Amino acid sequence: MQEFQLIRQVQRETSVASSNSSDRGVILGIGDDAAVLEVPAGQHLVAATDTLNAGTHFPVDTSPYDIAYKCLAVNLSDLASMGAIPRWALLSLSLPRVDSKWVRSFTAGFNALAQTHGVTLVGGDTSSGPLSINLTALGFVEPGRQLERSGANPGDLIVVSGTIGGAAYVLELLQSGRAVSERHLLDRPQPRVKLGQALVGYASACIDISDGLLADLGHVLKASGCGARLELEKLPHPDTLEGLEDRLKWNYQLSGGDDYELLFTLPSHHKVQLAYWSQRLDIGLSIIGEIEEGDACRCLRSDGTAYHPRDTGFEHFRQKV
Ligand code: ADP
Ligand code: MG
User: Cβ neighbours of residue 239 under 8 Å, at least 6 residues apart?
Assistant: First the structure.
């Protein structure tokens, strides 16, 4: 299959996800040298990009459907953590030889999530090489209303959506050749787009958990100049972690990446919002600790004793010792 056939197939198959592209602000989409897009008056453009490399960001046997799904999901998760409304995507594909069946599965995975969140594919790039997918997601936020990492204050509640630790657990099972029934926890993260938008005007800081709870909370603490107290028994876990020994479970929850849940800080007088958001959006929201003065992050067991995690999260290029 050649480049232009492939681009045409991607264009044809993704256009079903967004039939009325002029309503979507697309002045010029796939087919020219660049896309021309209309940002609604009075909005700021929010842009995020992320690359998924085979073997690093997804197991090599991941289906094209799930690769596309995850690539869009992780980028929408970045927009969600800013409180943005997603609108467009650009897609760069580096592919070894592919056929139209591969592309059909890929566009189906893309469409599944694009339709849910109203995202239109407006361009990209295609080249041959090792399997690697880059996606750029574009969206909007009202001027000055974006959620940033830097606004947390002592006394704010630390809240996490959904459950954490599941993706890392599934990855480890796969890597050790064991049977996995919950593979969706790794392959199909749910970007918390509606939640991110709901948090605008309430949350003092927000980030999505891609590298692990401690690593990503660490970014918030550093940017905000604060410390934190985490209560380990309050960390929400998926059913698949039920029954694991505490230390093992905490390790997945504290240091395992790839869950793409939102972690946010909330001034305590907004606490009543949590039940409302949770019910309206059908998402679990767990208070897992509190922002403190200082710069340390303390992990406490239910009896109040400190726990010292052995690993803090995933980082590319980190030296093995
Ligand atoms: P150029 O050589 O001018 O960069 P290309 O031949 O790479 O143009 O691409 C032609 C058109 O197809 C452009 O509008 C580009 O955005 C789009 N395109 C190329 N690859 C993809 C892709 N993987 N997904 C979506 N659109 C793509
Ligand atoms: Mg090009």
Answer: none
Kindly state the DSSP code that residue 196 receives in the 8-state scheme. Answer: H
Q: Residue 295: which of 209, 218, 230 has the closest Cα?
A: 218
Ligand 1 centroid–CA 125 distance in Å is 5
Q: At 37, is the secondary structure helix, strand, or coil?
A: strand
Ligand 1 centroid from CA 188, angstroms: 26
Residue 116 parent element (H or E): helix 100-117
Is-contact 25 41, C-beta < 8 A?
Answer: no
Decide: 245 in ligand 1 pocket, CB within 6 A.
Answer: no
Give residues with Cβ within 8 angstroms of 135, minimum separation 6: 49, 50, 71, 72, 75, 89, 90, 91, 92
Written as six digits, the tokens of 82 are 């800013």
CB 88 within 8 Å of CB 135:
no
pLDDT tens digits, one per residue of 139-192: 999 999 999 999 999 999 999 999 999 999 999 999 999 989 899 999 999 999
CA distance 216 to 11: 36
The SS3 call for residue 188 is coil
Query: Under a CB-based contact definition with an 8 Å cutoff, are residues 284 and 236 in contact?
Result: yes
82 CA distance to ligand 1 middle (Å): 28
* pTM passes above 0.85: yes
